[in-house]
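[#protein-structures] MJ: dropping PrgI family protein here for a structure pass
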Amino acid sequence: MTQPVTYSGWQSEKSGFMGRLSGPGFALVAIGCTLLLVPLNLASWAAAALCVPLAVMLLVLAFGRVSGLSADEWILLAVRHQIAVARNQNVFVSGPFAPRSTRTDRQPMDLPGTLARLRILEAPDGLGGLLGVAHDPVAGTYTAVSRVSFPGLALVDTDKQAARVSSWAALLRTFCTEDSPIVRLSVHQRCLPDDGAALRSWTAHHITPDAPPAAVSALSDLMEGAGPAATNRETYLSVTLSAGRARLAIKGAGGGQVGAAAVLVREIHALGGALSTASLQVMEWLSPRKLAQSIRTAYDPDAQAAIATANAAAQKPGWEGVEEGVNPALAGPAAADAGWGTYRHDGAWTVTYQVRTWPQAQVYATFLQPLLRPRRNARRSMSLVYEPLGPRRARQELAREKSKRSSARYLRAKTGRDESEDERREADLARTQDAARAAGQGVVRMTAVLSVTVTDLDELETACAELQADAAASALELRRMWGAQDVGFTAGALPLGQGLPDRRMGF
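AK: finished. structure tokens for PrgI family protein:
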């Protein structure tokens, strides 16, 4: 019997300015050490009484950690959030309060936070239909989103599991080339209560006119009870193209947004074979209205049933005037409020977490399954964001990581501190990754963001506790995105392939 394949080797990036200290943390340490030297130079007990407590406080702020963040990082988060609250930037109101365009005298697509700059464009998909393209003019990116299905891993033998994981790795490796126009891929999955609209539509089409009334009544009662108890999973794959990297191809395709959309369509058509090899079946590339629907149902879960009913009606004869999906101008919420630890949008509340530590031990390919267990009281969303690196940048990034870790080990040795097993393991892993890169393997930056949404505020903390318990079962360490819940919602609850910015951006 074939032994199950296990996986490990995730490496956390060292983003510190010096060792594990950030830039402000390093400044606090430098100031603290300077304050400790002042009493010695002055030979004054009065100066020591003043400088020593200040130095100790600064060192505590630099080295002390709460929930994985240092005190100076908490202070920066709190200051930014309070500035946003003072300027009323944490509150968003849409509808008649949205500013009208001076050029067209119409209300534009109205979205909160970092999505305010987003535009949904139309582009021919090359197959006679329309493709919805999410354009971010600030970042210079164009994103297409597809709804996909996959056979799963839990119920297949280990050989097929390993083959599917290897195929997905090969797909990612194809983008680890110099100047690849694709800068980001994102897999987004939602687990939400089934509204029962599809079941009712199928039943209505298959009930014969001579069916016994008692049987029809019993079937209707069964659907009313079984529909809300069921759960539905939606899986999306987003592909993001950088206009800067693809400028020559865009210029050759006509330039501007039209040329960028044409290059993006060409790239997603080239993905077809690789996706099939990875056992991913593309159900559809989302049109502008379907893309807006995925955004709208995330902001307002109560709209799911009404939209599903309208979509089912649009497929019936005689309803040709009804279109599926949602008007892109109405994709956003009516109102939203970004709190310190929660994000309120329309009639729902969302809490978003980022995966800060991946499993240190060997895990199986199905280790993420507990995260999307069906829950009747909450909707869960998870986004896996991949950023492929070209060979030159991968070499620079890994060399920088090795230099930081070597410097930290040298400083520990000079100060007489023992090296922990974790630090030794990280250094060995960095060398292994660099050797794999030199052998032709690709390097990918990855992050995962999870969101839990409820429509009853009393159930929010219970839903959060259940998510954290399931994350612990997956050997993941989560961190609540304090002070940046609106940005976290954009990355974790929407299938737009949004990465996390370096700094929190207000409304």
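MJ: nice. The longest helix spans residues 391-414.
AK: one more thing. Residues 391-440 form one domain.
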